[in-house]
Write a structure and sequence with these properties.
The protein is α/β, with parallel strands linked by helices. About 45% of the residues lie in helices and about 15% in strands.
Length: about 750
């Protein structure tokens, strides 16, 4: 049945104020900016009328039903609503029949809004499931209870859950002011004067509940004494009746406000949230390595009569999920304590309970096992074939060549050899990221070293066919020098470290809007998408080919989850104007702007570039937003003089290099921060020490010491003289034959907050 809630508006002055003031459009909504603000995922889906099944979860009065009304007013689909308190399976079937008829006869979608969806029992929820699954209806559910506990898991898994938060004081104040000013639905036809402190009291006691606030405002206004003129020259009249004549003055006192709203209601469910909140506090204390907090919450659970078996089960899970390979003994200790408790029971069983708790709380932590769920998602997305060299050679080797090219690890030193183990479509995909703590920290370096070698073997040989599965290399390979460079440098670890520094400084939330400048390599983009799934990730590239490459990587994402990517071919990591950003990405304001190495070839125009970047960033960022950039200035780079063993030559070279890098064309490391400060930002910066094992090749030396075409080579030759310059070149050519050099430089990490 169609619910009257969405089919007609109550005439002005009729119906409760809270119902009359419900938002009609997205622009009417106050608060919940984290899910319906400009650029947010839900707002884009509503505007594009491309909704999938949704569940709105939050306390009363936060706007769940109001969002449903906005959807009803916006969508081109048919809209039906049910209240789970008042309806059952018969009503569900009738709504489904109407939806099925619309789809078959008219090709029209149906959105079914179910208020208090958690009130339906399992059978009622199951009755809806097949029709959500086959697309007959798009479910929009609203619930005040945690849907992950109170709603059918199958329904939840097919829906996107949005959590609405209690409204802030500012949001509630704006809601009250709107209703006092609205002439059609609120009290704008009268002159309502609210005594100082009265509105603040209503806002404070409402506790984030807009309905509670509006009900209190309604009661306070409509029970207050009013004064008004009946007509020209008729004099003053007083009375408590409602409604007063238009233009009457209504004074709401602090006393009236206090009488209109009593005390904030406390939501408390002894059989639900109390139980889960306490075990949550216990697990988070153990995970956070706080033995004091862990013991307190453990004692509270035991004192309240919690089942010890339940506590042990949660600790066993934690041993695998949060301790993992950082301490492989943890799960054995907890299992032993659980068995000991089963033997002795209470009260002596408190000792193994406490021992397990303290062991886990003080153990090193690693959650790298969670990466397995990323693998499960990958398997669900694509059932990739087994590479030929990994197939079983005992059955089909002779006929089909299965197993050909497989490298037997035990035949090699250290019982390991690099070869491809993932399906070809997933080459380069990383699932396991070992932590640096405990036992896992000891194996991390070896895992990373082998992974880099595998990546070099599988991806580094530029001459191999794209579909080759048998992967080998030889000293005669054209790509041998580049292969060794990738193998020895540890470049992937440096890139990941840079990414993590930038994202840590930005402090990204799930609903934030991000703009990534100079994002051609995708280093910041993919992790940003994972960290802000309910927000927006916009990316700027320097070429159309880079944009196309990033879109290929994003092909597996749902349409509404994909990043927005645009080309800004200025070559120096520039930013668009707000109107350009709005045109390209549908959003002109962002919470974070992230960029790594934006200025690679900057000369005399450096200050202009910094100033323009900072000013545009200021215009694009929301209040409180930040810009984070990591840049390696040439003046903080490595110096060749550090590798020269001849002291005299090294000193002359050091002086020459300092003169070169401190000359024209190389900007000072403090210049970007100064530009952001002048643009109005609060800035902070630190210098990051960088190092890698870098293999210097013959091609590198040929370029450096070509004094006609190399700016460095020409300057250094002039300062040293031809003889010393050639001695330096000969010394460097001998040095690089010994292996990679420990290359050091410094980067500037700048954070600017608006």
């Amino acid at each position: 049945m169609d619910d009257d809630l969405f089919s007609a508006e109550a005439p002005a002055g009729e119906g409760p104020l809270a119902d009359r003031m419900r938002p009609q459009t997205l622009e009417d909504i106050v608060g919940q900016d984290h899910i319906v603000g400009p650029g947010r995922l839900l707002r884009r889906a509503i505007q594009a009328d491309r909704l999938s099944s949704l569940i709105f979860y939050g306390p009363p009065g936060t706007g769940k039903t109001s969002l449903a009304r906005v959807i009803a007013n916006t969508t081109r689909a048919a809209f039906e609503s049910l209240n789970a308190v008042l309806t059952g399976i018969k009503d569900i079937r009738e709504a489904i029949d109407r939806a099925d008829e619309r789809r078959r006869l008219y090709g029209r979608r149906t959105i079914l809004f179910v208020d208090e969806v958690h009130r339906w029992n399992k059978a009622q929820q199951d009755a809806l499931l097949p029709w959500v699954e086959n697309g007959t209806v798009i479910l929009v559910g609203a619930t005040t209870e945690n849907p992950f506990f109170e709603v059918n898991r199958a329904l939840v898994s097919r829906s996107r859950v949005f959590q609405l938060k209690p409204l802030s004081r500012e949001d509630l104040t704006e809601t009250a002011r709107r209703c006092l000013a609205d002439r059609e639905r609120g009290y704008g036809r009268w002159k309502v004067i609210v005594e100082e402190g009265a509105l603040e009291h209503l806002v404070e006691v409402s506790g984030g509940d807009a309905r509670s606030l509006l009900n209190a405002v309604e009661l306070a206004v409509e029970t207050s004494v009013w004064t008004g003129a009946e007509g020209p020259g008729t004099g003053e009249a007083e009375g408590p009746g409602w409604p007063p004549p238009a233009g009457a003055e209504i004074r709401v006192s602090l006393e009236a406000a206090a009488e209109s709203i009593q005390r904030r209601a406390l939501l408390y469910d002894r059989d639900g949230d109390y139980h889960f909140d306490t075990i949550s506090a216990f697990i988070k204390s153990v995970r956070g390595s706080d033995p004091d907090g862990a013991l307190y919450w453990l004692a509270k659970m035991i004192r309240a009569g919690e089942d010890p078996g339940f506590i042990f089960r949660r600790m066993i899970i934690l041993a695998g999920e949060d301790v993992g390979l950082a301490d492989p003994n943890a799960i054995g200790v907890v299992m032993a304590c659980a068995q000991a408790f089963d033997r002795i029971g209470f009260p002596e069983g408190n000792f193994p309970l406490v021992e397990a708790c303290l062991y886990l709380a003080t153990a090193p932590k690693s959650n790298s096992a969670l990466n397995f769920f990323d693998v499960m998602k990958e398997v669900e997305k694509e059932d990739a074939e087994v590479p030929n060299h990994l197939r079983d050679a005992s059955r089909d080797g002779e006929s089909f060549g299965h197993g050909e090219g497989y490298i037997y690890p035990h035949a090699y030193r250290d019982h390991w050899a690099a070869q491809q183990y993932l399906p070809s479509s997933l080459v380069g995909k990383l699932f396991y990221m070992p932590s640096r703590t405990g036992y896992e920290g000891k194996i991390r370096e070896e895992v990373m070293r082998k992974r880099e070698l595998q990546a070099a073997i599988v991806l580094g040989d530029a001459g191999r066919p794209a579909d080759a599965e048998v992967l080998t290399w030889s000293a005669a390979s054209k790509g041998r020098e580049g292969w060794f460079k990738r193998l020895e440098s540890g470049r992937s670890g440096l890139l990941l470290a840079d990414r993590d520094r930038i994202l840590a400084a930005a402090a990204i939330n799930r609903h934030d809007r991000l703009l990534i400048a100079r994002g051609d390599d995708g280093l910041l983009l993919w992790e940003s998408l994972r960290r802000s799934p309910e927000g927006l990730c916009a990316c700027l590239t320097g070429s159309e080919s880079a944009r196309e490459a990033l879109f290929r990587f994003a092909a597996t994402l749902d349409e509404e989850e994909q990043p927005r990517i645009a080309v800004i071919p200025d070559g120096e990591g520039g930013l668009p104007a707000p109107d350009e950003a709005e045109q390209w990405f549908g959003c002109s304001v962002y919470d974070h702007i992230l960029v790594r190495e934006p200025w690679r070839r900057v000369g005399a125009n450096a200050e202009d570039l910094f100033r323009e970047f900072a000013e545009r960033a200021f215009r694009l960022l929301a209040a409180g937003g930040n810009a984070v950039l990591l840049q390696s200035p040439p003046r903080l780079g490595e110096r060749i003089s550090r590798f020269v063993t001849d002291r005299g030559l090294a000193e002359k070279l050091r002086e020459a290099e300092e003169a070169f890098f401190n000359g024209d064309g190389f900007w000072d490391s403090g210049a970007p921060e100064a530009a952001f400060g002048k643009a109005g930002f609060e800035t902070g910066s630190r210098i990051v020490e960088q190092q890698e094992e870098r293999l210097i090749g013959v091609a590198d030396l040929d370029l450096w010491f070509d004094s006609e075409h190399s700016r460095w080579g020409g300057f250094i030759r002039t300062r040293l003289g031809d003889g010393d310059f050639r001695l330096l070149e000969a010394a460097m050519r001998e040095l690089v034959k010994q292996g990679p050099l420990s290359w050091r430089w410094k980067s500037l990490l700048l954070t600017a907050r608006k």
